[in-house]
Amino acid sequence: MELRHLRYFVALAEELHFGRAANRLHIVQPALSKQILALERELGVELLDRTHGVTLTPAGAVFYEEASAILDRVSEAVRSAQGTARGELGSLDVGFVGPAMWSVLPWILREHRRAHPNLRYRLFELGSPEQMERLRAGTLDVGFLRPIAVDDALVFKPVWREQFVVALADDHPLAGTGRIDLADLKDERFVVLPRRMAPNLSDTSLSICLSYGFSPKVVEEGNSPSALVMVAMGLCVALIPESARNAGFKGITFRPLIRPTPEQDLAVAYRAEDRSPALRAFLATISSVVRGVQAPGQPPAELVAG
């Protein structure tokens, strides 16, 4: 039995007329009659009652329901296969460091959702080292991270670049200052991300403080949201990437330093050998949204305008 036999029978069962069914199938009537007879012989049952016109036998009615369901499933399988090949179906496991959610990632996800509404996402906030481990292991499809080492198994493409700013509680004495001399904060308590989660960020923060002549009093460690909560409560200050301005926390003032800071890159990373359609489509969206490295702290111009 072939799929064409099911298509022929379904058309005939719906038309209940050999001539109309043949026209619908774009075949001649004798060929249709021959195929239906062959199907009945193969099944060993009569599907049609030809006594007065054409009607379905009880067996024919059951066979019609099942054959229609099979053809629907075949059509769905074809659509699914084609959609998967175009990267429109399936899923993506996406890792990210906190600042990615303050900068480009929400806009990338929004644009990709518009183009591929049936793709599923699983998002994981992870430090850069863990993202690289999971990318290599194949348990993460793509990551937004701070590059920390050369890795031949992974591809890194910058998507964002930014400087550091000081985060202060709104009622801090220096909150009204235009630009801050970091040396004025040498006696303050600083909150930082644990080095195991963000080695580049931690090391750069320390080097900036040292360039102002002091080593920070690190009394708190936390992830990005908890660090900002502690700043807002006036428990400490933070030296943090400029995109934190977009995090939406109330009670925090962000101030630039009197000297430019080293810039931090945010990169998208993925396995060099990964050729999955879903990943390739996602990378194409990233390229269209982030046309080169953006200005510090600013979302992509195309999406702001849109």
Architecture overview:
With 306 residues, the protein is an alpha/beta fold. It folds into 3 domains: 3-85, Winged helix-like DNA-binding domain superfamily/Winged helix DNA-binding domain (Arc Repressor Mutant, subunit A), CATH 1.10.10; 91-160 and 264-305, Periplasmic binding protein-like II (D-Maltodextrin-Binding Protein, domain 2); 164-255, 3-Layer(aba) Sandwich (D-Maltodextrin-Binding Protein, domain 2), CATH 3.40.190. Helix content is 42%, strand content 20%. The chain is built from 11 helices and 12 strands. It has helices spanning 3-15, 18-25, 29-43, 58-85, 98-102, 105-115, 128-137, 199-211, 224-232, 277-289, 301-305, and strands spanning 48-49, 55-56, 91-96, 120-125, 142-145, 154-162, 164-169, 189-192, 217-221, 238-241, 252-255, 264-271. The strands form 4 sheets. Strands 4-3-5-12-6 form a 5-stranded mixed β-sheet, with helices on both faces. A 3-stranded antiparallel β-sheet has the order 10-7-11. A hairpin with a 5-residue loop joins β1 and β2 (55-56). α1 packs across α4. The chain is rod-shaped. It starts with a helix and ends with a helix. Mean pLDDT is 84; it is low at 295-306.
